[in-house]
Design brief:
Blueprint: E1 8-14, H1 20-39, E2 48-52, H2 68-81, E3 87-93, E4 96-99, E5 102-105, E6 112-113, H3 114-121, E7 128-133
Parallel strand pairs: 1-2, 1-3, 3-7
Antiparallel strand pairs: 4-5, 5-6
Amino acid sequence: MDDPAAKKYALIIVGAAVDEQRANEFGGWGLALRESLHEDYGYAPHNVRMLLGSTAGNDFNVDGSSRVKSIHDTFETLALRIESGDQLTVFLIGHGSGSGTSAKFNIVGPDLAGAELGALLNYIKTQNIIAVNTTSA
């Protein structure tokens, strides 16, 4: 980011877990990442969104669920805020799956396909997009 007026945005999506221990672990990683983006990398607090689980009613500081509708709604909001010179980093924390050439990020409800994520990213005005996929598949 060479433009001093450019803003940095991040979206942390914490996917579904097989058990409560993993869910707490994934949520903890998401929360630690959110704090690090604020404290260590200078992201404005209102420019970092975190989606987790089926509802926002939990112990973590989250902005919504990681269900398909909430993910779509968050991308719509980001598309309205992000300008052409800004930066967006999307973090996927959790499990993935795949079959043939189709990869999916496991979330509560229908999983998020790679092609669907790509379509959502196309709505963002900037070309400065970073995707960090921490899934094993």
